[in-house]
Amino acid sequence: MDSLGRRTLVGELVAEFTGTMILILFGVGVVAQVVTSEGGLGDHDSIAWAWGLGVTFGVYAAARISGAHLNPAVSVALATFGDFEWRKVLPYSLAQTAGAFVAALLVRWIYADAIGTVDAGHTIATQGIFSTLPGNGAMDISTSTAFFDQVLGTAILLFLILAVTDARNNAPVAWIAPFIVGLIVVAIGMAWGTNAGYAINPARDFGPRLASFLTGYDTAFEDQRGALYFWVPIVAPLIGGVLGAGFYKVAIGRFLPAEDEPAEEGRIPEQAPREERVAENVAARAEHREPGA
Amino acid sequence: MDSLGRRTLVGELVAEFTGTMILILFGVGVVAQVVTSEGGLGDHDSIAWAWGLGVTFGVYAAARISGAHLNPAVSVALATFGDFEWRKVLPYSLAQTAGAFVAALLVRWIYADAIGTVDAGHTIATQGIFSTLPGNGAMDISTSTAFFDQVLGTAILLFLILAVTDARNNAPVAWIAPFIVGLIVVAIGMAWGTNAGYAINPARDFGPRLASFLTGYDTAFEDQRGALYFWVPIVAPLIGGVLGAGFYKVAIGRFLPAEDEPAEEGRIPEQAPREERVAENVAARAEHREPGA
Amino acid sequence: MDSLGRRTLVGELVAEFTGTMILILFGVGVVAQVVTSEGGLGDHDSIAWAWGLGVTFGVYAAARISGAHLNPAVSVALATFGDFEWRKVLPYSLAQTAGAFVAALLVRWIYADAIGTVDAGHTIATQGIFSTLPGNGAMDISTSTAFFDQVLGTAILLFLILAVTDARNNAPVAWIAPFIVGLIVVAIGMAWGTNAGYAINPARDFGPRLASFLTGYDTAFEDQRGALYFWVPIVAPLIGGVLGAGFYKVAIGRFLPAEDEPAEEGRIPEQAPREERVAENVAARAEHREPGA
Amino acid sequence: MDSLGRRTLVGELVAEFTGTMILILFGVGVVAQVVTSEGGLGDHDSIAWAWGLGVTFGVYAAARISGAHLNPAVSVALATFGDFEWRKVLPYSLAQTAGAFVAALLVRWIYADAIGTVDAGHTIATQGIFSTLPGNGAMDISTSTAFFDQVLGTAILLFLILAVTDARNNAPVAWIAPFIVGLIVVAIGMAWGTNAGYAINPARDFGPRLASFLTGYDTAFEDQRGALYFWVPIVAPLIGGVLGAGFYKVAIGRFLPAEDEPAEEGRIPEQAPREERVAENVAARAEHREPGA
Hints:
The structure is a homotetramer. Chain A is mostly helical.
């Protein structure tokens, strides 16, 4: 895309911070609503929908500036296959985690009354509002199952993100893509939320986990069995994302005709589309504006 | 957009009145259905979806003529940043409130039998059909928490409205934008409806509140604790909207390349897009029609 | 749109028959599922969604050929304002009712086992699967309230159908419009289904009512109080549709610039768009195909 | 579409395998979540939505390469009307079934802990996670009713797939079509899931059924009455798909103007659109890119 030097790393990091903050304001917010209202103001389907819509709006906010990864597993997977600069992976990941952390603090603050009424002690009973647990803290799921669940869930996420943003494939135009990407997370929440609460995003899990730890949740880093668990939703998604992206390239990407992207010589395929289509989106708008002028 | 003098303030005010009426016919209507059927004909998710779809259809109806603010918090926030004329803010706000008032009277009339069967005394038990209460009248939420919840909720609303209508960003084309804008309200209802019933719109709350007060709800201006509450969903959203719009400009807007809008010199950035895209939408239609002609 | 004489009245009537059949296969089907599974396989939200999606797919099937009214209230309202030929109103209405009748017979046949297990006597307990009742047969709603509810509900339907198909307004392109139109019915089901089960369509109600009467539901034409009721969901929607369409023209239509449709001189405004946009849709496809050729 | 020999049968089969795998990862996954959480993490609506979204994403992944049938009933119906090569029907069907089989094994593996806690014996109580049963194993539905339910359900599916992909009709553009196609399955799940669990796809049912049989479900091929049942969701959908596709051609297809496809001489009508529109989709992207270049 064109840019008069205004698309700096600072801008990209602010966009990743802001987009992830939007994502978590909805994601952690909806769990807070469902848990504190004890089901009166929503259920697991509300959680699946609001998380997905949170992704949609986080992507709408940041896509043009940073590509809207909003997830270290996305940044690492894209970098692994040369679709994103490694030097940006750590800054992006820190900005994403910071955005999630700040958003979780806002939820913690506004929902303090409500949380206090259902779990004054800030125990594992409401820990799930902020971070994930094996079997959502309720079902007895082994740590290894939770780990492989997160590997698979994040693999599905990255496979589908590439599938719907690869311009050589059947990718939606930029201005509707955030809606479709959000639906991926809606569906993962409905089908893959049992074993480990579908973190599928280290920033989504660690940022809010830290925020809860610093605001009264002393056992935030442990699971319901008292074992350290915080590392699972960090390590497993990073592995799963790479596997899912790799599977996309092996199973779908290599069969797609390259000549559909004449202007793409030497360009980064998966990273490009989203920006490409944003550019085209604005270009299209400019074209369309003419007759109106 | 072009207009042969037909896009007058009268037309704009009628559009704001009508669009907000549509919004409230669905919004207050769905709460009436869920409350009077005691959950048999819907739950909180239905409320979130129907409110959001009400926004979608109110915007479809009014967007072309008035920009479809349908919310004084939107008009004030846009005016604060020079994106809307201050002189129109009061008329717009009054038209919006009047539309909400009339819609609420229609719901009150058609649902009179149903309300009578569950709350013959027209008490706080069904007040929530028309206007918001701290903790939805059920949970013990402090007024200050409700106030800050409304500031934050409306900040999220305005941030996202600008994010999805800024032509320099990844804005959907005009003919699908109302659907995306409606989804913002669906998600806010799912994640930010606990503490104060997500009024996030002074007209949405005061119009129906007044309608209920004039039709038998004597305590319409109070909360479940008997304290005056009606001012919270008016003042807090007006403040939150300005904060959210300002945050968008600081975190996202200033990093977006200006040159993507060559024809926009001296134009109002955020206000423009929706009208721009409507113009382009019709232009696009005209273009496409040619081959068919 | 162009047509080499193939777009005959026969084709239009078959399209209205088929489109309404699709609508009812989903609409009556989902109520049959929810009622016979006693909530195990869905709830009122499923009913709202499946009815709306039934409309979406019925419109996708018939739009190109007949304009996809699928509802006598639509045909009458369009004809009232000169947007549809009066001579076609009766044939369209009969085709719509016949399609609804046949679809209801299919549901009656396939769901016979299931209905038999929950209501062997085919009483008013499962009558609601096929046709509407005041207060859905459960709540005590007066006939007059049900009547006015149907007038208002259908007024909202027609107002919004015109709002989202008026090419001078912010109308979606033809290939996504059926989805948006379906969402209107989803929202009406969530907000206006309490008092009279949102028939808002004489064909939707009478066709299945007749089918149930002929297959064991002896009291199909009565309400839970034993009074003749079948006329309410026929008469009220026809009145409401005209009122809603008229309100659109008074409140929105007259403020929309006419010059946006240079090619529309003397054309029927509201009827045109859908066909126009279908034409443009195919034209656009043809254009786009060229580079691929 | 163009292809430099890269669109080989191997690529097509891998795409069908992968797309069906994605479909089943969501479809069988969501039933596993709802069943093992005993409703705590979803209900029948979640199942309808996640199955539909699974179709959406399976189609997004495979559409460009194989046309994304993901269902032998689709391949057979298209071939029956000359819209797909008979020689490819068996390979496609086997690839689809293999993809469903592998996806079911992944669900079986990751959900092993959860299934073990609710049904250690791997009985018919959790068989429904993997394959369909008459009346979902709960209601007493006759085999013949289940058979005709599957004929009708699959007829609706194929009728609508053709309706929304026929370029002469009101077909969505390629980049949004997978969303609309997914909604067809959402609606079928809500309205036609009572009698036989809406397999409407032999690969969806047999692949996971075999996977469950090989992993501890000894009675996987029987229904709750101990009778062999696995053949019903194979035979009935194949018949229903042909009937539905035929009905589309008789009721809608023959009334659509052929001249809308000048470039389509001698082309396969229903098969073409999806590929056509993908080509046009990429073409459109190329065009749009120019101004940005």
